[in-house]
UniProtKB/TrEMBL annotation, chain A:
Residues 88-107 are annotated as: Disordered. It comes from the Bacteria. Residues 97-107 have a biased composition (Basic and acidic residues). Keywords: Membrane, Transmembrane, Transmembrane helix. GO terms for molecular function: sodium:proton antiporter activity. InterPro entries: PhaG_MnhG_YufB. The keyword Membrane applies. It holds the Pfam family PhaG_MnhG_YufB. This is Monovalent cation/H(+) antiporter subunit G. The chain crosses the membrane at residues 67-89. Coiled coil: none annotated.
Automatic annotation (TrEMBL), chain B:
It comes from the Bacteria. Its main location: membrane. One of its GO terms (cellular component) is plasma membrane. This is DUF4040 domain-containing protein. Keywords: Cell membrane, Membrane, Transmembrane, Transmembrane helix. It comes from Vreelandella alkaliphila. The chain crosses the membrane at residues 26-44, 51-72, 92-113, 148-168, 183-200, 212-234, 240-261, 273-299.
Amino acid sequence: MMGDLLGIALILLSLPFFIASTVGLLRFPDVYARLHALTKADNVGLGLICLGLAVQADSVAVGLKIVLIWGLLLLASSTGATLISTSALRHGHPPRQRNDVDKHAGR
Amino acid sequence: MLAVDLLLTLAALATAGQCLLLPGLFRAVANLMAFGLVMALIWVRLDAPDVALAEAAIGAGITGALLLTAVGQLPASQRQLHHEHYRVPRRFIPMTIIVVFVGGVLWATMLALPKVGLVKEIAAVLPESGAEHAVTAILLNLRGIDTLLEIAVMLCAVAAIWSLQRAIPPPALELNYPGLTTLARWLHPLFLLTFSYFLWQGTHAPGGAFPAGAVLGAGGVLLLLTGSIGWMYRHYYNQLLRWLLAAGLLLFLATALAGLLMTGSLYGLPPQLAGYFIIAIEVAAALSIALMLMTFYLFGRPRS
Protein backbone atom coordinates (compact mmCIF):
# COMPACT_ATOMS: atom_id res chain seq x y z
CA MET A 1 0.00 0.00 0.00
CA MET A 2 2.77 2.40 0.96
CA GLY A 3 4.68 1.27 -2.15
CA ASP A 4 1.68 2.01 -4.36
CA LEU A 5 1.22 5.51 -2.92
CA LEU A 6 4.94 6.26 -3.25
CA GLY A 7 4.88 4.95 -6.82
CA ILE A 8 1.91 7.11 -7.80
CA ALA A 9 3.53 10.16 -6.19
CA LEU A 10 6.79 9.59 -8.07
CA ILE A 11 5.01 9.11 -11.41
CA LEU A 12 2.91 12.25 -10.88
CA LEU A 13 6.10 14.13 -9.99
CA SER A 14 7.59 13.06 -13.34
CA LEU A 15 4.86 14.74 -15.40
CA PRO A 16 6.08 18.38 -14.94
CA PHE A 17 9.52 17.33 -16.20
CA PHE A 18 8.07 15.78 -19.37
CA ILE A 19 5.85 18.80 -19.99
CA ALA A 20 8.81 21.14 -19.48
CA SER A 21 11.00 19.18 -21.89
CA THR A 22 8.25 19.03 -24.52
CA VAL A 23 7.66 22.78 -24.27
CA GLY A 24 11.43 23.24 -24.55
CA LEU A 25 11.58 21.05 -27.66
CA LEU A 26 8.82 23.08 -29.28
CA ARG A 27 9.85 26.57 -28.20
CA PHE A 28 13.66 26.70 -27.86
CA PRO A 29 15.46 28.48 -30.70
CA ASP A 30 18.21 26.10 -31.86
CA VAL A 31 19.19 22.44 -31.90
CA TYR A 32 21.55 22.71 -28.91
CA ALA A 33 19.00 24.32 -26.62
CA ARG A 34 16.38 21.76 -27.67
CA LEU A 35 18.76 18.88 -26.97
CA HIS A 36 19.51 20.44 -23.61
CA ALA A 37 15.80 20.48 -22.74
CA LEU A 38 15.22 16.92 -23.98
CA THR A 39 18.22 15.20 -22.42
CA LYS A 40 17.99 16.85 -19.03
CA ALA A 41 14.30 17.06 -18.23
CA ASP A 42 13.18 13.91 -20.08
CA ASN A 43 15.73 11.72 -18.35
CA VAL A 44 14.78 13.00 -14.90
CA GLY A 45 11.10 12.40 -15.74
CA LEU A 46 11.88 8.93 -17.03
CA GLY A 47 13.94 8.19 -13.92
CA LEU A 48 11.03 9.19 -11.69
CA ILE A 49 8.66 6.96 -13.70
CA CYS A 50 11.10 4.04 -13.50
CA LEU A 51 11.49 4.54 -9.73
CA GLY A 52 7.72 4.81 -9.34
CA LEU A 53 7.25 1.53 -11.24
CA ALA A 54 10.14 -0.15 -9.43
CA VAL A 55 8.71 0.47 -5.94
CA GLN A 56 5.42 -1.08 -7.12
CA ALA A 57 7.12 -4.14 -8.65
CA ASP A 58 6.29 -7.58 -7.29
CA SER A 59 9.86 -8.70 -6.77
CA VAL A 60 13.26 -7.07 -6.30
CA ALA A 61 14.46 -8.60 -9.57
CA VAL A 62 11.71 -6.91 -11.59
CA GLY A 63 12.36 -3.60 -9.82
CA LEU A 64 16.08 -3.78 -10.59
CA LYS A 65 15.33 -4.57 -14.25
CA ILE A 66 13.16 -1.43 -14.49
CA VAL A 67 15.96 0.66 -12.98
CA LEU A 68 18.40 -1.00 -15.43
CA ILE A 69 16.20 0.26 -18.30
CA TRP A 70 16.69 3.78 -16.99
CA GLY A 71 20.45 3.31 -16.81
CA LEU A 72 20.61 2.03 -20.40
CA LEU A 73 18.48 4.92 -21.63
CA LEU A 74 20.75 7.42 -19.85
CA LEU A 75 23.76 5.96 -21.67
CA ALA A 76 21.99 5.90 -25.04
CA SER A 77 20.41 9.36 -24.82
CA SER A 78 23.56 11.11 -23.60
CA THR A 79 25.61 9.51 -26.39
CA GLY A 80 22.87 10.34 -28.91
CA ALA A 81 22.77 13.97 -27.78
CA THR A 82 26.55 14.25 -28.16
CA LEU A 83 26.31 12.75 -31.67
CA ILE A 84 23.54 15.10 -32.79
CA SER A 85 25.20 18.22 -31.38
CA THR A 86 28.66 17.33 -32.74
CA SER A 87 27.17 16.61 -36.19
CA ALA A 88 25.21 19.88 -36.13
CA LEU A 89 28.35 21.82 -35.22
CA ARG A 90 30.43 20.09 -37.92
CA HIS A 91 27.79 20.72 -40.58
CA GLY A 92 27.72 24.42 -39.88
CA HIS A 93 24.99 25.24 -37.39
CA PRO A 94 26.72 27.63 -34.98
CA PRO A 95 25.13 27.90 -31.53
CA ARG A 96 22.95 30.98 -31.09
CA GLN A 97 24.68 33.95 -29.48
CA ARG A 98 23.30 36.19 -26.79
CA ASN A 99 22.57 39.14 -29.11
CA ASP A 100 21.21 37.12 -32.07
CA VAL A 101 17.72 38.02 -33.20
CA ASP A 102 15.26 35.12 -32.88
CA LYS A 103 13.19 35.33 -36.07
CA HIS A 104 10.56 32.98 -34.63
CA ALA A 105 10.10 34.98 -31.42
CA GLY A 106 6.52 35.86 -30.53
CA ARG A 107 5.02 33.22 -32.76
CA MET B 1 -7.35 0.18 -21.64
CA LEU B 2 -9.71 1.00 -24.52
CA ALA B 3 -8.42 4.58 -24.45
CA VAL B 4 -4.83 3.33 -24.86
CA ASP B 5 -5.85 1.10 -27.78
CA LEU B 6 -7.71 3.94 -29.50
CA LEU B 7 -4.76 6.30 -28.96
CA LEU B 8 -2.36 3.72 -30.42
CA THR B 9 -4.63 3.20 -33.45
CA LEU B 10 -4.85 6.93 -33.99
CA ALA B 11 -1.08 7.32 -33.62
CA ALA B 12 -0.45 4.52 -36.14
CA LEU B 13 -2.85 6.07 -38.65
CA ALA B 14 -1.43 9.55 -38.09
CA THR B 15 2.20 8.53 -38.57
CA ALA B 16 1.32 6.37 -41.60
CA GLY B 17 -0.71 9.21 -43.13
CA GLN B 18 2.05 11.78 -42.58
CA CYS B 19 4.62 9.36 -43.99
CA LEU B 20 2.62 9.00 -47.21
CA LEU B 21 1.13 12.46 -47.65
CA LEU B 22 3.65 15.04 -46.43
CA PRO B 23 6.29 16.19 -48.94
CA GLY B 24 9.97 15.60 -48.21
CA LEU B 25 11.86 12.32 -48.01
CA PHE B 26 13.48 12.99 -44.65
CA ARG B 27 10.11 13.68 -43.07
CA ALA B 28 8.71 10.49 -44.59
CA VAL B 29 11.55 8.41 -43.11
CA ALA B 30 11.18 10.02 -39.67
CA ASN B 31 7.45 9.28 -39.73
CA LEU B 32 8.10 5.70 -40.87
CA MET B 33 10.38 5.17 -37.86
CA ALA B 34 7.73 6.60 -35.52
CA PHE B 35 5.18 4.31 -37.21
CA GLY B 36 7.44 1.31 -36.52
CA LEU B 37 7.62 2.21 -32.82
CA VAL B 38 3.83 2.62 -32.58
CA MET B 39 3.42 -0.77 -34.31
CA ALA B 40 5.77 -2.32 -31.75
CA LEU B 41 3.57 -0.92 -28.94
CA ILE B 42 0.50 -2.35 -30.68
CA TRP B 43 2.16 -5.79 -30.79
CA VAL B 44 2.85 -5.45 -27.06
CA ARG B 45 -0.84 -4.70 -26.51
CA LEU B 46 -1.67 -7.87 -28.49
CA ASP B 47 0.50 -9.87 -26.04
CA ALA B 48 3.12 -10.70 -28.66
CA PRO B 49 6.29 -9.21 -27.13
CA ASP B 50 8.68 -11.16 -29.39
CA VAL B 51 7.04 -9.80 -32.52
CA ALA B 52 7.09 -6.35 -30.91
CA LEU B 53 10.82 -6.61 -30.33
CA ALA B 54 11.51 -7.70 -33.91
CA GLU B 55 9.31 -4.85 -35.17
CA ALA B 56 11.07 -2.25 -33.00
CA ALA B 57 14.55 -3.47 -33.92
CA ILE B 58 13.98 -4.07 -37.65
CA GLY B 59 10.98 -1.88 -38.54
CA ALA B 60 11.95 1.23 -36.63
CA GLY B 61 15.67 0.92 -36.04
CA ILE B 62 17.46 -0.91 -38.81
CA THR B 63 15.18 -0.04 -41.74
CA GLY B 64 14.90 3.57 -40.61
CA ALA B 65 18.65 4.02 -40.36
CA LEU B 66 19.11 2.36 -43.79
CA LEU B 67 16.57 4.70 -45.37
CA LEU B 68 18.16 7.73 -43.69
CA THR B 69 21.52 6.69 -45.14
CA ALA B 70 19.90 6.28 -48.56
CA VAL B 71 18.40 9.79 -48.30
CA GLY B 72 21.81 11.11 -47.28
CA GLN B 73 23.40 9.58 -50.40
CA LEU B 74 20.91 11.20 -52.78
CA PRO B 75 22.02 14.41 -54.48
CA ALA B 76 20.45 17.42 -52.76
CA SER B 77 18.22 18.10 -55.77
CA GLN B 78 16.40 14.80 -55.33
CA ARG B 79 15.89 14.90 -51.57
CA GLN B 80 12.78 17.04 -51.81
CA LEU B 81 9.93 15.53 -53.73
CA HIS B 82 8.16 18.43 -55.38
CA HIS B 83 4.46 17.96 -55.80
CA GLU B 84 4.02 20.71 -58.32
CA HIS B 85 0.83 19.40 -59.85
CA TYR B 86 -0.26 17.27 -56.95
CA ARG B 87 -0.60 19.53 -53.96
CA VAL B 88 -2.36 18.10 -50.92
CA PRO B 89 -4.54 20.70 -49.19
CA ARG B 90 -3.55 21.43 -45.59
CA ARG B 91 -6.75 20.06 -44.09
CA PHE B 92 -6.72 16.92 -46.21
CA ILE B 93 -4.27 14.98 -44.01
CA PRO B 94 -6.00 15.25 -40.61
CA MET B 95 -9.38 14.79 -42.29
CA THR B 96 -8.26 11.59 -44.02
CA ILE B 97 -6.83 10.26 -40.77
CA ILE B 98 -10.01 11.02 -38.84
CA VAL B 99 -12.25 9.48 -41.52
CA VAL B 100 -10.13 6.32 -41.67
CA PHE B 101 -10.06 6.14 -37.86
CA VAL B 102 -13.80 6.53 -37.38
CA GLY B 103 -14.48 4.14 -40.25
CA GLY B 104 -12.07 1.59 -38.79
CA VAL B 105 -13.64 1.80 -35.33
CA LEU B 106 -17.13 1.35 -36.82
CA TRP B 107 -15.95 -1.58 -38.90
CA ALA B 108 -14.26 -3.18 -35.87
CA THR B 109 -17.43 -2.90 -33.77
CA MET B 110 -19.41 -4.37 -36.65
CA LEU B 111 -17.01 -7.30 -36.86
CA ALA B 112 -17.13 -7.79 -33.11
CA LEU B 113 -20.87 -8.59 -33.19
CA PRO B 114 -20.61 -12.14 -34.57
CA LYS B 115 -17.27 -13.91 -34.20
CA VAL B 116 -15.97 -14.30 -37.72
CA GLY B 117 -12.63 -15.42 -39.07
CA LEU B 118 -10.31 -18.13 -37.83
CA VAL B 119 -10.61 -17.41 -34.11
CA LYS B 120 -12.14 -20.80 -33.27
CA GLU B 121 -9.77 -22.84 -35.42
CA ILE B 122 -6.73 -21.13 -33.93
CA ALA B 123 -7.99 -21.56 -30.37
CA ALA B 124 -8.39 -25.28 -31.10
CA VAL B 125 -4.78 -25.84 -32.22
CA LEU B 126 -3.23 -23.40 -29.74
CA PRO B 127 -2.32 -26.10 -27.15
CA GLU B 128 -0.34 -28.06 -29.77
CA SER B 129 1.36 -25.04 -31.33
CA GLY B 130 3.94 -24.58 -28.58
CA ALA B 131 3.09 -20.90 -28.18
CA GLU B 132 0.82 -19.46 -25.54
CA HIS B 133 -0.78 -16.64 -27.47
CA ALA B 134 -2.69 -16.73 -30.72
CA VAL B 135 -0.69 -14.00 -32.49
CA THR B 136 2.64 -15.57 -31.60
CA ALA B 137 1.32 -19.02 -32.55
CA ILE B 138 0.18 -17.83 -35.98
CA LEU B 139 3.26 -15.83 -36.85
CA LEU B 140 5.88 -18.18 -35.56
CA ASN B 141 4.47 -21.68 -35.59
CA LEU B 142 1.38 -22.21 -37.74
CA ARG B 143 2.94 -20.05 -40.43
CA GLY B 144 6.51 -20.79 -39.36
CA ILE B 145 7.53 -21.44 -42.95
CA ASP B 146 6.94 -17.73 -43.61
CA THR B 147 9.77 -16.86 -41.24
CA LEU B 148 12.13 -19.03 -43.26
CA LEU B 149 10.93 -17.60 -46.54
CA GLU B 150 11.59 -14.16 -45.05
CA ILE B 151 15.18 -15.27 -44.58
CA ALA B 152 15.28 -16.07 -48.30
CA VAL B 153 13.89 -12.59 -49.03
CA MET B 154 16.56 -11.03 -46.82
CA LEU B 155 19.25 -12.98 -48.67
CA CYS B 156 17.89 -11.54 -51.93
CA ALA B 157 18.06 -8.06 -50.36
CA VAL B 158 21.73 -8.60 -49.49
CA ALA B 159 22.38 -9.69 -53.10
CA ALA B 160 20.56 -6.58 -54.36
CA ILE B 161 22.58 -4.24 -52.14
CA TRP B 162 25.84 -5.94 -53.11
CA SER B 163 25.02 -5.55 -56.79
CA LEU B 164 24.51 -1.79 -56.49
CA GLN B 165 27.93 -0.51 -55.48
CA ARG B 166 31.14 -1.22 -53.60
CA ALA B 167 31.14 -1.27 -49.81
CA ILE B 168 31.59 2.09 -48.06
CA PRO B 169 34.11 1.68 -45.24
CA PRO B 170 33.06 3.27 -41.92
CA PRO B 171 34.40 6.78 -41.26
CA ALA B 172 36.99 7.22 -38.51
CA LEU B 173 34.51 7.98 -35.76
CA GLU B 174 36.86 7.57 -32.83
CA LEU B 175 38.43 10.97 -33.41
CA ASN B 176 35.20 12.94 -33.56
CA TYR B 177 32.75 10.88 -31.54
CA PRO B 178 34.70 8.96 -28.89
CA GLY B 179 31.56 8.20 -26.87
CA LEU B 180 29.83 6.21 -29.59
CA THR B 181 32.62 3.64 -30.05
CA THR B 182 32.89 3.11 -26.30
CA LEU B 183 29.13 2.75 -25.93
CA ALA B 184 28.93 0.20 -28.76
CA ARG B 185 31.65 -1.91 -27.13
CA TRP B 186 30.20 -1.64 -23.64
CA LEU B 187 26.70 -2.57 -24.74
CA HIS B 188 27.65 -5.54 -26.89
CA PRO B 189 27.76 -8.05 -23.98
CA LEU B 190 24.17 -7.03 -23.18
CA PHE B 191 23.16 -7.58 -26.82
CA LEU B 192 24.79 -11.05 -26.67
CA LEU B 193 22.98 -11.85 -23.41
CA THR B 194 19.60 -10.85 -24.86
CA PHE B 195 20.37 -12.84 -28.04
CA SER B 196 21.14 -15.99 -26.03
CA TYR B 197 18.01 -15.54 -23.94
CA PHE B 198 15.76 -15.28 -27.00
CA LEU B 199 17.41 -18.32 -28.61
CA TRP B 200 16.98 -20.35 -25.43
CA GLN B 201 13.34 -19.29 -25.25
CA GLY B 202 12.96 -20.34 -28.88
CA THR B 203 13.83 -23.95 -28.10
CA HIS B 204 10.50 -24.65 -26.47
CA ALA B 205 8.51 -22.47 -28.84
CA PRO B 206 9.88 -22.23 -32.38
CA GLY B 207 10.26 -18.54 -33.07
CA GLY B 208 13.18 -17.27 -31.06
CA ALA B 209 15.27 -16.93 -34.19
CA PHE B 210 13.87 -13.70 -35.61
CA PRO B 211 13.87 -11.54 -32.45
CA ALA B 212 17.23 -13.01 -31.43
CA GLY B 213 18.73 -12.32 -34.84
CA ALA B 214 17.27 -8.81 -34.82
CA VAL B 215 18.85 -7.99 -31.45
CA LEU B 216 22.27 -9.39 -32.36
CA GLY B 217 22.06 -7.70 -35.76
CA ALA B 218 21.27 -4.32 -34.16
CA GLY B 219 24.27 -4.64 -31.84
CA GLY B 220 26.41 -5.76 -34.78
CA VAL B 221 25.34 -2.78 -36.90
CA LEU B 222 26.40 -0.49 -34.06
CA LEU B 223 29.83 -2.15 -33.93
CA LEU B 224 30.14 -2.16 -37.73
CA LEU B 225 29.33 1.55 -38.08
CA THR B 226 31.83 2.47 -35.37
CA GLY B 227 34.53 0.61 -37.29
CA SER B 228 34.98 -2.19 -34.76
CA ILE B 229 34.44 -5.01 -37.27
CA GLY B 230 37.10 -4.84 -39.94
CA TRP B 231 37.06 -8.38 -41.26
CA MET B 232 33.83 -8.05 -43.23
CA TYR B 233 35.44 -5.58 -45.60
CA ARG B 234 38.47 -7.76 -46.34
CA HIS B 235 38.96 -9.91 -49.40
CA TYR B 236 40.31 -12.81 -47.33
CA TYR B 237 37.04 -13.35 -45.44
CA ASN B 238 34.70 -12.78 -48.36
CA GLN B 239 34.10 -16.47 -49.13
CA LEU B 240 33.44 -17.22 -45.44
CA LEU B 241 31.01 -14.31 -45.18
CA ARG B 242 29.02 -15.61 -48.16
CA TRP B 243 28.72 -19.11 -46.67
CA LEU B 244 27.71 -17.75 -43.25
CA LEU B 245 25.03 -15.58 -44.85
CA ALA B 246 23.54 -18.58 -46.62
CA ALA B 247 23.86 -20.96 -43.65
CA GLY B 248 20.36 -20.49 -42.24
CA LEU B 249 18.59 -21.05 -45.54
CA LEU B 250 20.88 -23.94 -46.55
CA LEU B 251 20.31 -25.76 -43.27
CA PHE B 252 16.57 -25.32 -43.65
CA LEU B 253 16.64 -26.75 -47.17
CA ALA B 254 18.89 -29.61 -46.02
CA THR B 255 16.38 -30.41 -43.27
CA ALA B 256 13.56 -30.44 -45.78
CA LEU B 257 15.52 -32.87 -48.00
CA ALA B 258 16.46 -35.04 -45.03
CA GLY B 259 12.77 -35.26 -44.15
CA LEU B 260 12.02 -36.27 -47.72
CA LEU B 261 14.62 -39.07 -47.58
CA MET B 262 13.64 -40.35 -44.13
CA THR B 263 9.87 -40.27 -44.21
CA GLY B 264 9.01 -39.65 -47.85
CA SER B 265 7.40 -36.25 -47.41
CA LEU B 266 9.04 -32.81 -47.54
CA TYR B 267 9.78 -31.47 -44.02
CA GLY B 268 8.31 -34.70 -42.61
CA LEU B 269 10.83 -35.18 -39.81
CA PRO B 270 10.56 -38.18 -37.50
CA PRO B 271 9.19 -36.79 -34.19
CA GLN B 272 12.06 -38.08 -32.02
CA LEU B 273 14.60 -36.15 -34.12
CA ALA B 274 12.49 -33.04 -34.82
CA GLY B 275 13.60 -31.25 -31.66
CA TYR B 276 17.31 -31.38 -32.57
CA PHE B 277 16.63 -30.22 -36.12
CA ILE B 278 14.54 -27.30 -34.86
CA ILE B 279 17.32 -26.17 -32.50
CA ALA B 280 19.94 -26.42 -35.27
CA ILE B 281 17.74 -24.44 -37.68
CA GLU B 282 16.95 -21.83 -35.02
CA VAL B 283 20.62 -21.17 -34.22
CA ALA B 284 21.69 -21.09 -37.85
CA ALA B 285 18.73 -18.89 -38.83
CA ALA B 286 19.34 -16.42 -35.98
CA LEU B 287 23.04 -16.08 -36.84
CA SER B 288 22.23 -15.69 -40.54
CA ILE B 289 19.60 -13.01 -39.80
CA ALA B 290 22.02 -11.08 -37.59
CA LEU B 291 24.74 -11.29 -40.23
CA MET B 292 22.40 -10.26 -43.04
CA LEU B 293 21.19 -7.21 -41.09
CA MET B 294 24.84 -6.27 -40.58
CA THR B 295 25.82 -6.74 -44.23
CA PHE B 296 23.04 -4.31 -45.23
CA TYR B 297 25.19 -1.70 -43.52
CA LEU B 298 28.21 -2.45 -45.66
CA PHE B 299 26.17 -0.40 -48.20
CA GLY B 300 27.61 -2.52 -51.03
CA ARG B 301 29.77 -5.55 -51.82
CA PRO B 302 33.05 -5.98 -49.99
CA ARG B 303 36.15 -6.65 -52.08
CA SER B 304 36.06 -10.15 -53.52
